[in-house]
Amino acid sequence: MVRTCVIGCGNMGSALVRGLYASGNHSVVACDLDPDALAAVADYCEETTDDVGRAADAEVVFLAVKPDIVEAVLDELDLSADQTLVSIAAGVPTAFVEARTDARVVRIMPNLAAETRDMAAAATGDVTDEVRELLDDVGEFAEIEEGQMDIATAVNGSGPAFVFYFIEAMTEAGVAGGLDHEEAQVLAAQTFKGAAETVLQDDRTADELVDAVCSPNGTTIEGMEVLWDSEADAALADAVAAAEQRSEELAAAFEDD
Fold first, then answer.
1. 39, 121, 173, 212: which could form a disulfide with 141 (CB 3.0–4.6 Å)?
2. Are 185 and 166 in contact (CB under 8 A)?
3. 111 appears as a binding residue in the annotation
4. What pTM did the predictor assign?
5. Which residues belong to any copy of the Pyrroline-5-carboxylate reductase catalytic N-terminal domain (predicted)?
6. Would the annotation count 7 as a binding residue?
């Protein structure tokens, strides 16, 4: 069992707590100043506390707080060189964290699917085998360069919201066609889930898979013709670019420090 401490039990932190608990490979201490946040994860960890000092006993410490309080939390942490600090604070450069701790530093951008152990994460910094195994426990990850973290933040960090948007659009289209909302949502969500798994498991590219699904004169190609003639891909690219730009703005504020 890896002794793990998660500091910050908001949406992302609590998702990590639940995912790590579900893996069965971690002894988790959850730390937050909000008693309601701690109560929400109490069933998924060994201990809840408002004392960041408890992180001193952990092998791996997750810093899952908002960017504007990262420095204040780091000032309270006293970690050693044999510990690993994993920062998931959006826009906070690895160097900023490294300058304020003796621990090995890994920066990751995860997403909320950590809760169901389907997380997509980007990682940079001192990524040890211990961290790799931990990330494997809650999903899939890619090791990237520090300079790629802003675009990774946009793709996999913000990406779930974009996917939720399209699932809702497909759901509403189903409802408009006469399906019950719950039925339509199950069909839409499971379709996204299955399609995503196919992309991960199949050797073909996404474009090749589109071609495989589109039978000549069939229903799918009729729908794809509409998408190909639309600006849906451009709109999605613009959404990713906007999220990337915001990540760059957050990072710039810390670099000025």
1. 121
2. no
3. no
4. 0.88
5. 5-91
6. yes
User: Residue 144 annotated as binding?
Assistant: no
35 known ligand binder = no
193 is annotated as contributing to ligand binding: no
Domain count, the chain: 2
Query: Residue 257 has what pLDDT?
Result: 56
In a domain, 246, yes or no: no
Q: Tell whether 9 is in a known binding site.
A: yes
Q: What is the pLDDT of residues 63-117, one digit of tens each?
A: 999 999 999 999 999 999 999 999 999 889 999 999 999 999 999 999 999 999 9
pLDDT digits (tens, 9 = 90+) for 9-18: 999 999 999 9
Say whether 139 counts as a known binding-site residue: no
Known binding residue 64? Answer is yes
Yes or no: say if 87 and 110 are a contact pair by the CB < 8 Å rule.
no
* Statement to judge: residues 136 and 216 lie in one domain: no
Distance CA 217, CA 197 (A): 26
Percentage of the chain surpassing pLDDT 90?
95
**8 annotated binding-site participant:** yes
